[in-house]
């Protein structure tokens, strides 16, 4: 049931609106002036506020300003007399949802209330989705081990600069999380963060993906397309698994880093770009250079700062913290009651050889949460750790 607050100094107006809205099954509260209205908004959760413009103590515009600043998700509909229509229109420009003129029209009131409440529902759903998206892109690095503290210290030192960073570590260790943390703690945080998985794109398409292409550059190029460098303008371009990049793409990336310019595939015009480059790999690039698989000059361009992310086996002291973190996160995302690890259950997790690192741990925690009873003990961990 939606909750509505009516703020108006005229008792007959309040009573008339209360009768109409309660008949429509809304929960209604009243305030006889702006000051009391502000107190009630602060103390209660309302889905909608109907507010008169001319009132003693605090007028409707003061109430509107307070609600917009402190409760921006609550829609406000202004109630205006004949002499305050212009003021009501100004209120809409300031952020009010709509206005209703006196004398009140029943149909107009109900339509406006329904529309305002629908807007409130959409705002709430949008906030929930935004929160969920942000949860899926968490930039908090969980852990207190010496290895992970070193990673955090490096991020704190480097993030504010535009220095290129090469992030190394095994699959599933959290290299992308480090890259996102660097971006979120930089002056570029409000600009795009664009990720390219170099291992997932065929070598014949990687140049088009990075630099874009002109119409007709190749058979399927039916229109001009901007590449990732241009999409990341002003922000950060994260080249994941850069050790798998083709030799020709490496040469073009090197040129882009040297000159801060790119040329689209099939084009001749040079395009200036302003992006910060972060790269990551699970390969030993020094060995790849010796094997002639990776350009040494590109390596030195990328590795101004080196950050190595330790494997989970190298930071087993963090497993209890990580397990509890994933347990809470998965429960929150799926609306599940939280379960607990016993001490021997956590010890069993620490005894596992984690070849898949953090990603493998998260998957196991989710599996245990779904399949176990209230407590997750060592027997349960060992049972589901390596399912056949």
From TrEMBL:
GO molecular function annotations of the record: ATP binding
GO biological process terms on file: phosphorelay signal transduction system; regulation of DNA-templated transcription
Keywords: ATP-binding, Nucleotide-binding, Phosphoprotein, Transcription, Transcription regulation, Two-component regulatory system
Keyword Ligase set for record: no
Domain Response regulatory: residue ranges: 3-117
Superkingdom, taxonomy of origin: Bacteria
PANTHER family assigned: TRANSCRIPTIONAL REGULATOR (NTRC FAMILY), TRANSCRIPTIONAL REGULATORY PROTEIN
Protein name, entry field: Response regulator
């Amino acid at each position: 049931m939606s909750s509505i607050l009516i703020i108006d100094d005229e008792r007959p107006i309040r009573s008339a609106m209360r009768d109409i809205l309660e008949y429509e099954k809304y929960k209604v509260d009243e305030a006889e002036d702006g000051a009391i209205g502000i107190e009630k908004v602060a103390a209660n959760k309302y889905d909608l506020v109907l507010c008169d413009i001319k009132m003693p103590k605090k007028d409707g515009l003061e109430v509107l300003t307070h609600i917009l600043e402190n409760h921006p998700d609550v829609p406000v509909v202004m109630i205006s007399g004949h002499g305050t229509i212009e003021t009501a229109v100004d209120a809409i420009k300031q952020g009010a949802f709509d206005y209703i003129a006196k004398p009140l029209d029943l149909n107009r009131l109900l339509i406006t209330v329904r529309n305002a409440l629908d807007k409130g529902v959409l705002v709430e759903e949008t906030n929930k989705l935004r929160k969920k998206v942000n949860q899926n892109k968490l930039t908090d690095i969980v852990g207190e081990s010496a290895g992970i503290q070193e990673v955090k210290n490096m991020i704190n030192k480097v993030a504010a600069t535009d220095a290129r960073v090469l992030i190394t570590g095994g699959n599933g260790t959290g290299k992308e999380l480090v890259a996102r943390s660097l971006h979120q703690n930089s002056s570029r945080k409000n600009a795009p963060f664009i990720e390219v998985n170099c291992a997932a794109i065929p070598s014949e398409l990687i140049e088009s993906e990075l630099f874009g292409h002109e119409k007709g550059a190749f058979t399927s190029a039916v229109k001009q397309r901007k590449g990732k460098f241009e999409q990341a303008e002003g922000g950060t371009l994260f080249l994941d698994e850069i050790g798998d990049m083709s030799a020709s793409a490496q040469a073009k990336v090197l040129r882009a880093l040297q000159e801060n310019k790119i040329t689209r595939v099939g084009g001749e015009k040079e395009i200036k770009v302003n992006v910060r480059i972060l790269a990551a790999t699970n390969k030993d690039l020094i060995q790849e250079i010796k094997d002639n698989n990776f350009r040494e000059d590109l390596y030195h361009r990328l590795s101004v700062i080196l950050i190595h992310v330790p494997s989970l086996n190298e930071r087993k002291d963090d497993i209890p913290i990580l397990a509890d973190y994933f347990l809470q996160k998965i429960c929150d995302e799926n609306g599940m009651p939280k379960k607990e690890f016993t001490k021997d259950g956590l010890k069993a997790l620490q005894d596992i050889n984690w070849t898949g690192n953090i990603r493998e741990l998260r998957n196991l925690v989710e599996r245990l949460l779904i399949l176990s009873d209230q407590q997750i003990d060592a027997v349960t961990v060992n049972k589901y750790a390596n399912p056949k």
